[in-house]
Write a structure and sequence with these properties.
Order of helices and strands: EHEHEHEHEHEHHEEEHHHH
Radius of gyration: 20 Å
Distance between the termini: 66 Å
Shape: elongated
CATH architecture of the largest domain: 3-Layer(aba) Sandwich
Number of helices: 11
Structural class: alpha/beta
CATH superfamily of the largest domain: Vaccinia Virus protein VP39
Helix content: 25-40%
Length: about 270
């Protein structure tokens, strides 16, 4: 039977944060153990709450930092994790410049992510991919599945392609609502992202992002129709790839598609 934290010490979840606090110690340890600890000496936990996951991260042979905007949680952590206190960042991860703390040092991201900003956390991680070789944590299950899904899946989309262009994504395990306070209405899923050895794209990366986002905005249409805004030449539109729908293309195919569009615009 998994041990649970004493509820008398539970910080009340803030609805505006979309946060559900994990209480199950076994699952917390399992999430902490998803980190490989390869390629970095620092960990940044987003949204630690009462520190149920933090306590297991602190046992790792790396330096753990936490970033939290809830003042009650920050106060609890300072009082109960004295050694951690200098590394508690009372900041908003989405607005925070990591260089203020880490300079250019690599770090891993981990957390039980608030549902309402979880995809934004992933997109910021992609922006900071040069500095983040590994990312691990818990999402709403359908979001975790979407990030890790492959072409042909109904949930395969923008988040899948952009994440998998730079990271190898692996769905690890499902977590039931009963281990949270308050319990969410859906299952959660834990995933791990490990940055690819060669994560520089052989095409214009800004254009790649634009092509992927535009393609999936009208996912039922063929690429010939959904990518009209790129003013493609008739010759290029005749290419067989433009007769496909976006969910049929894997990451490599999107890279090739971007290269075709890039070359077309230059001619």
């Amino acid at each position: 039977m998994a041990q649970k934290q004493n509820n008398s010490h539970q910080v009340k979840a803030k609805k505006f944060l979309g946060q559900h606090f994990l209480e199950d110690e076994t699952i917390a340890k399992d999430i902490a153990d998803t980190l490989t600890l390869n390629g970095y000496k620092n960990i940044l936990e987003i949204g630690p709450g009462m520190g149920v996951l933090t306590k297991y991260l602190l046992k790792k042979p790396v330096t753990t930092y936490v970033i939290e905007i809830d003042t009650e949680s920050v106060e609890y952590l300072k009082n109960n994790y004295l050694n951690l206190a200098p590394r508690i960042l009372e900041k908003d991860f989405l607005k925070y410049n990591l260089n203020e703390t880490f300079k250019e040092e690599p770090l891993a991201i981990i957390g039980n992510f608030p549902y309402n900003i979880s995809t934004q956390i992933v997109f910021k991680t992609l922006e900071l991919r040069d500095q983040i070789p590994e990312f691990s944590g818990m999402f709403q299950k359908e979001v975790a599945k979407r990030i890790c899904s492959k072409e042909g899946s109904k949930v395969y989309g923008i988040l899948s392609v952009l994440t998998q262009a730079f990271y190898d994504a692996e769905y690890l395990f499902t977590v039931p609502p009963t281990v949270f306070n308050p319990p969410p209405k859906v299952d959660s899923g834990v995933l791990r992202l490990i940055r690819k050895d060669n994560y520089s794209l052989p095409c214009n990366e800004k254009l790649f992002f634009r092509v992927v986002k535009q393609a999936f905005q009208q996912r039922r249409k063929t690429l010939r129709n959904s990518l009209k805004t790129f003013n493609l030449s008739d010759k290029l539109k005749a290419n067989v790839i433009f007769g496909k729908r976006p969910e049929q293309l894997n990451v490599q195919a999107f890279i090739e598609l971007t290269t075709l569009i890039q070359n077309d615009s230059e001619n």
